[in-house]
Amino acid sequence: MHAVSVGQQLSQASTLLGAVDAARNWRALGLMFTTLVAGSVLWGMGALIAGQVHVAVGAIFFLFGLAVVFYGGNAVGIMLMDEARGMPARNPVAALVESLATGHRLVLAFLLFGLIYLAGLLVLAVVLFVCKLPFFGPLLFALVFPVSVVVVGLAIFALQAVVFPLTAPAVWAGATTIQAVSRVGAIARARVVNVVMMMVVLFLITGVVAGLIAAVLFSGTLVTGGLAASILGAPLGFGGGLEGMVSGGSRYMVAGGIGGGVVYAVALSLPALVFARGCCDVYLTNLQGVDPASMEAHMQGRMHTALRKAEELRDRARDARAPKPMPPSPAMVTPVPSPADQVPLAAANLPPAPRAASVAEPAPEPVAPVPPLMPAAPPPVPAPEAIAMPALGVAATPVQCPACSAPHDAGDLFCGNCGFKLKASVPSV
Questions:
Q1: pLDDT digits (tens, 9 = 90+) for 131-151
Q2: Which contacts of 85-92 are long-range, i.e. CB under 8 A and separated by 24 or more positions?
Q3: What angle is formed at CA 174 by the lines to CA 73 and CA 184, rounded to 5 degrees?
Q4: 360: confidence class by pLDDT, cuts 50, 70, 90
Q5: Is the Cβ–Cβ distance between 78 and 174 less than 8 Å?
Q6: Which element (helix H / strand E) includes 125?
Q7: Distance between CA atoms of 125 and 308, rounded to whole angstroms?
Q8: DSSP-assigned letter for residue 421
Q9: What is the pLDDT of residues 31-71, one digit of tens each?
Q10: Is residue 111 scored above 90 in pLDDT?
Q11: Residue 380's pLDDT band (boundaries 50, 70, 90)?
């Protein structure tokens, strides 16, 4: 990044004389004229509707007119940037399509610059609040006031002479929002003096062109209006006013107003083309030798940091708005025993621990295992005693059991003592 001498600055400023050639770009001139006429018609209809119908409906027409002027002027700038870079200029339809696709970048770039300026004002406000300290405040304000006056004045001047004139050409050249802001910032940091000198020359050139056109139109309007007033009976000059509208020559007044509006729209388009083409030349001239990559990386880092902090603040706000759980009522709370109370309970539920064997206590002798007991045999069921019916006329003779020699009757089937099965015998008569 090399410094530019004063001679080179003057030489570069003299190249802006070529911006006057933009008046010969008939397609850009026609698009600018159409844009201004369409915007003026929409604004006029909006004013009429706001007075007769409703202010909101008139505001809608005003916004439509503003959009037509913005996108149409943006398309004209794209055509002039192609011409300034030595490229074939696009036709108005292609330029309008490109303007509709990239016009939001210019709006976002201006909003981003607005945020930067707003952050600077907040910093100044914080410094002024610090100056309210009882003892050091006046001493600090004696230093802050002159510095802030110079800084704020330079910032406002840079806004008019650098930011507004160079941001639009950056977007017309195809830069994104971040790239446009970064390039303008890099140019302002490295070439601010050169940019200011070239913008002063451009303002002078545009003013001379506008003055010449105004002189031509003013003199022509005076002569033509005077002759029309004397011949047609309709005052078409600058002093006609409502008199011509009330008189019989009102139709000539309307026709003269339409024709004069066309002439003045074309006259206004010429200085606008010269200024836009000059801004393109200033941007392209000062962009050479400037490295906006570091500025772009710095801005992207700042934006990522700001977005991360914004997300953190959003998460904190969402957590703060989230409903907190209600604490349970005392009646629903189950008392939890303390650790000191839990130990006896746990100890009570455990089986008693075996006592440690004493040294003097002898060890128990081993006991022989007891064999499992066999199930005892069920006792014999005694047979029902048979009732012996002695024969009539015969006496019962006692008999002995062959097994245990126990006496039993002769008609018994089993021994009453040992249960032996006896053989029934009938004694002989």
A1: 988 888 888 999 999 999 999
A2: 85/173, 85/284, 89/25, 89/27, 89/28, 91/27, 92/27, 92/30, 92/31
A3: 85
A4: very low
A5: no
A6: helix 92-130
A7: 25
A8: B
A9: 998 998 888 888 888 888 888 888 898 899 999 999 999 99
A10: yes
A11: low
Q: How many CB atoms lie within 10 A of CB 68?
A: 20
- Which residues fall within 8 angstroms of residue 284, CB to CB, at 6 or more apart? 84, 85, 169, 173
Asked if pLDDT for residue 248 goes beyond 70, the answer is no
203-211: long-range pairs with CB below 8 Å, 24+: 205/16, 205/17, 205/19, 205/20, 205/274, 205/278, 206/271, 206/274, 206/275, 206/278, 209/20, 209/23, 209/270, 209/271, 209/274, 210/270, 210/271
Residue 386 has pLDDT above 60, yes or no: no
Helix pair 177-231, 250-287: axis angle to 10 deg: 150
Enumerate residues 6+ apart whose C-beta is below 8 A from 106.
Answer: 74, 167, 168, 171, 180
CA gyration radius, the chain: 58
What is the domain partition of the chain in residue ranges?
16-291
Token readout for 218 is 């003013």
Q: Which two tokens stand for residue 131?
A: 């100056």
Q: Which two tokens stand for residue 105?
A: 């970048």
Q: The tokens of 382 are what? A: 């005694």
- The separation between CA 125 and the C-alpha centre of its own chain, rounded to angstroms, equals 28
CA distance 356 to 180: 90
Which amino acid, residue 89? A
C-alpha span between 30 and 190 (Å, rounded): 37
* Two tokens, residue 5: 């001498």
Q: Are 81 and 169 in contact (CB under 8 A)?
A: yes
For residue 270 the two structure tokens come to 């010429």
